[in-house]
Amino acid sequence: MPRSQKTNVTTKPTVKLSARKVEKDAARKAAKKVDRATKPPKPPKVRVVKARDPVTLERAMRAVGAAIDKKALEPVLSYIGELTSYADYVLIVSGRSDRQVQAIAEGIALASKQAGVVPLGVESTKDGRWTLIDLGDVIVHVFHHPVRDYYDLEGLWGDAPRVKLTIPADCRARPEDAYTT
Questions:
Q1: What is 54-174's CATH topology?
Q2: Does the pTM of the predicted model rise above 0.85?
Q3: Residue range 97-135, pLDDT digits in tens
Q4: Of the candidates 138, 174, 179, the residue with the CA atom closest to the CA atom of residue 52
Q5: C-alpha dist (Å) from residue 122 to 39, 125, 136, 140
Q6: How many Å is the maximal CA-CA distance in the chain?
Q7: Can you name the residues that pair with 132 across neighbouring β-strands?
Q8: Which of 47, 50, 103, 124 is most buried, taking the most CB atoms under 10 A from its CB?
Q9: Strand pairing partners for 92?
Q10: Which residue from 165, 138, 160, 167 is spatially nearest to 79, judged by alpha carbons?
Q11: Residue 102 in 3-state DSSP?
């Protein structure tokens, strides 16, 4: 036969498993499952959290109180100190109207000034849709409620632990507050 007509066909030998081998494999797999089930679970990894400065927390809570005094909707205070380097807390609140947003922002800035903390910056107070107040280690966002829903900063800081707040009933959002503009 000429060389060009030869075909290189390699066949794998068929492996016949004996019933005994199949039983051993099944028993070994079952034993592994039992071992996994009886082993104690690994302890969770411990996250080292830096100590939260009580002065900064007091500053943040003062801003929360000033916002609640102006009937701000759904205040959310998150500790972002372990996620960012520029602040320790972020406060997110909203108002039902442009005028209420302005009043909340003015109330927070005034309460901070009375406590001896001059805001480092206040942005967008005239528009009434979104005002940002920089109190150093505390950043405050005051939104018009539909704008807050649109930007969803709470979702952005979803990994940050939240400070438990007692929110009065008149500071809870109602279904009619969720209208779009």
A1: Beta Polymerase; domain 2 (3.30.460)
A2: no
A3: 999 999 999 999 999 999 998 888 888 867 778 999 999
A4: 138
A5: 56, 7, 11, 9
A6: 105
A7: 123, 141
A8: 103
A9: 76, 141
A10: 160
A11: helix
